Amino acid sequence: MYNIDDKKRIVIKVGTSTLTHKTGRFNIRRVEKFVKVLSDLQNSGREIILVSSGAIGLGMAKMGLSQRPTETPMKQACAAVGQCELMYMYDKLFSEHNLTVAQILLTKYVVDSKDRNNVVNTFEKLISNRVIPVVNENDTVAIDELELEFGENDTLAAYVGIICKADLLIILSDIDGFYDSNPKTNPEAKLIPVVTEINDSIRSLAGGA
User: Fold this and answer.
1) What are the phi and psi torsion angles at 180 (to 5°)?
2) Using 50, 70 and 90 to split pLDDT, how confident is the model at 109?
3) Alpha carbons 48 and 42: distance in angstroms, whole number
């Protein structure tokens, strides 16, 4: 039987829809509960690494935009504003539980590099000092279309799990599982409760990841 108690180093990915209301503003009660749970896990002896979306959405709200911009420079501007807001929120809430966070912004170029020892060493030093890394893609300088070089933060979280040799990856989502097609557009989509083998079919469903 699967037992989370056996897992020490855990990467947790949280999406924008979990962190915010439809207005783009923080869902304060939900975020406070989320940080409280992560803090308790950290205090129990686990090593928490948080991969967090939300920068672009929060930047939009902060800049008074009602619609998501379509031009890359404006998306990057929103990300720059929103990343400050995101880290301010995490720093404030985790500090209430006497925990410290650190920001790590990654690009696919860095993660894919054969010589990524600096990234690995940074994670290890933070984790060994009981600091919670908060990871996001460096949207403000990435050169491809946003959401971006990685595609989305689910993929980034998988990369981070590999880099950090995590025992467990948890993806928090407004989708309740892994489906054989998009349940938002296909009402007949079927939930796949357990993936026992990574084959070409599964890779295609996961977008080739």
Assistant:
1) -80, -10
2) confident
3) 6
